[in-house]
């Protein structure tokens, strides 16, 4: 027990009562699982009965009671899939890599259909990533949407996966809740209902023709699954990525999240320096709040910026947005209304960097997508599907303002800006910006949140917020 305590404390940085509570939760999980439905073994330890190979031709074999997949050059991703499909389940297995790390994972609720990219395997994957990026345990949508839960959303879990050692993996897929663990510690939590059932599969990732990559082994053993009388693990505090538009799951509610836009009306919002929601210029259709630009550029905008009726101090805001080609907009916070002159505030820039000229203005890229507008440029982002910014598709924005005035901008699960509001550096940045003449710019203790109408069509949904203490 002391060894487990030291591991959890090191990984999560927890102490005292918080750590004891987590360990107690683990003990409760162990005890409740004894009363859940029976475990079914998915591997007899001797043969690959009940499994079939899909995709590439990397070999799978049974060696000393384990399924062993071996990387080979010149083949696409290979999968050893269960012949059965599963909807709601709890799955566990042990996994180990030998001869060097290689990308791998465990597919779940996955499919291979003749009419989808000629049978390409697609669906959810518990990622195994032994590179310095260390996103093991993240959830990736293989062959489809890309990263749903990159490892950056739970940095405390980066060191859980151990190369050249046996690691315990756990997946809970119950209803729309998809959760993963590595070595008993939670890593990812996604809420999604795109695929309700499918097979499980063990992945040997393509290595192309890279020198030294062929011949690496991935081993799996003790594969088992529960499908009846499921008892989900106790709730935890990690960030939840909810992909069902305009909803707040029960676990999010327990964390303090609530919708800031109801998905159907203008309730809780009004025009800047107005008492009501704009009568024109904004549309609400099919759960999307969209700027409706004028038909001709020379025409006056009918809507204008909108602000929350509520004031916010320390908070966390999350939403999805979709840009059209060449679009410009923004999410402002600590926005103070001026009359005349609209509202001034700190801005999470929303921009088509490729086609809008504002991306090349300012200083050092501080007007690009995700930047603190005209103050701090967005930091470099890693590659990856659903990570790299993309116009015309839904993207994820998140703003965190802590009680001590630390502020973070997140774009598609990556922290791209970090600063301290009111610090000497912050004041120096303001002094060299277009806001230099605005006294106490961005320093109000509480103010409104704002969605900017810059004359381009931009859509928003799943706008939610929680107060931070």
Describe the structure.
The protein is mainly beta and 469 residues long. It folds into three domains: 1-35; 37-226, Exo-inulinase, domain 1 (Jelly Rolls, Sandwich); 245-467, Jelly Rolls (Sandwich). It has four helices and 29 strands. The protein has helices at 2-12, 16-33, 250-254, 424-431, and strands spanning 40-41, 51-55, 60-63, 66-70, 78-82, 89-98, 104-111, 122-128, 139-142, 146-149, 167-174, 177-182, 185-191, 199-204, 217-226, 241-242, 258-259, 269-271, 282-285, 288-291, 306-308, 315-323, 328-338, 342-351, 395-401, 406-411, 414-420, 448-451, 458-467. Strands 1, 3, 4, 6, 11, 12, 13, 15 and 16 form a nine-stranded mixed beta sheet that branches. Strands 17, 19, 20, 22, 25, 26, 27 and 29 form an eight-stranded antiparallel beta sheet that branches. A hairpin with a 2-residue loop joins β11 (167-174) and β12. The longest helix has 18 residues, at 16-33. The chain is elongated. The chain starts with a helix and ends with a strand. The model is unreliable at 1-34 (pLDDT under 50).
The computed structural class is mainly beta
Shape: elongated
Mean pLDDT, rounded to whole units? 92
Number of helices: 4
Quaternary structure state of the chains depicted: single chain
> Could you describe the largest sheet, including whether it forms a barrel?
9 strands, mixed
Under CATH, the homologous superfamily of the largest domain reads Exo-inulinase, domain 1
Helicity level: under 10%
Q: CATH topology of the largest domain, anyone? A: Jelly Rolls
CATH architecture of the largest domain: Sandwich
**C-alpha Rg, in Å?**
24 Å
Total number of strands: 29
How much strand content do the residues show?
35-45%
């Amino acid at each position: 027990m002391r060894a487990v305590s030291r591991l959890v404390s090191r990984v999560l940085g927890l102490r005292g009562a918080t750590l004891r509570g987590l360990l107690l939760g683990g003990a409760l999980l162990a005890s409740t699982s004894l009363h859940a439905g029976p475990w079914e073994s998915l591997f007899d330890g001797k043969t690959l009965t009940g499994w079939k190979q899909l995709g590439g031709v990397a070999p799978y074999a049974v060696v000393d009671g384990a399924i062993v997949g071996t990387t080979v050059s010149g083949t696409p991703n290979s999968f050893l899939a269960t012949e059965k499909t599963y909807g709601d389940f709890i799955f566990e297995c042990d996994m180990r890599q030998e001869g060097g790390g290689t990308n791998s994972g465990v597919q779940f609720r996955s499919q291979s259909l003749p009419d989808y990219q000629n049978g390409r395997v697609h669906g959810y994957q518990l990622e195994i990533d032994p590179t310095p990026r260390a996103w093991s345990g993240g959830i990736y949508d293989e062959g489809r949407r890309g990263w749903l839960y990159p490892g950056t959303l739970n940095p405390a879990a980066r060191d859980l996966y151990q190369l050249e050692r046996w690691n315990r993996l756990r997946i809970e897929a119950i209803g729309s809740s998809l959760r993963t663990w590595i070595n008993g510690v939670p890593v990812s939590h996604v809420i999604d209902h795109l695929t309700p059932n499918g097979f499980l599969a063990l992945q040997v990732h393509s290595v192309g023709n890279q020198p030294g990559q062929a011949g690496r082994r991935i081993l799996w053993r003790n594969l088992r699954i529960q499908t009846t009388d499921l008892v989900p693990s106790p709730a935890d505090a990690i960030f939840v990525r909810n992909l069902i538009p305009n909803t707040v799951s029960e676990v999010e509610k327990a964390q303090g999240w609530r919708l800031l836009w109801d998905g159907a009306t203008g309730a809780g919002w009004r025009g800047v320096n107005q008492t009501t929601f704009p009568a024109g210029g904004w549309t609400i259709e099919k759960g999307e709040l969209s700027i409706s630009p004028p038909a001709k550029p020379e025409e006056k905008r009918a809507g204008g910026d909108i602000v929350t009726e509520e004031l916010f101090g320390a908070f966390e805001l999350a939403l999805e947005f979709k840009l059209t080609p060449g679009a410009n907009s923004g999410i402002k916070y600590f926005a103070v209304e001026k009359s005349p002159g609209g509202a001034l505030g700190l801005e999470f820039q929303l921009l088509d960097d490729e086609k809008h000229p504002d991306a090349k203005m300012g200083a050092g890229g501080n007007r690009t997508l995700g930047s603190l507008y005209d103050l701090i440029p967005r930091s470099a982002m890693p590659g990856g599907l659903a990570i790299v910014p993309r116009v015309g598709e839904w993207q994820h924005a998140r703003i965190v303002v802590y009680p001590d005035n630390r502020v973070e901008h997140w774009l598609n699960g990556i922290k791209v800006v970090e600063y301290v509001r009111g610090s000497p550096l912050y004041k120096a940045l303001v002094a060299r910006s277009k806001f230099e003449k605005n006294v106490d710019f961005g320093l109000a203790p509480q103010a409104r949140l704002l969605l900017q109408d810059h004359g381009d069509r931009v859509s928003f949904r799943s706008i939610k917020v929680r107060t931070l203490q």
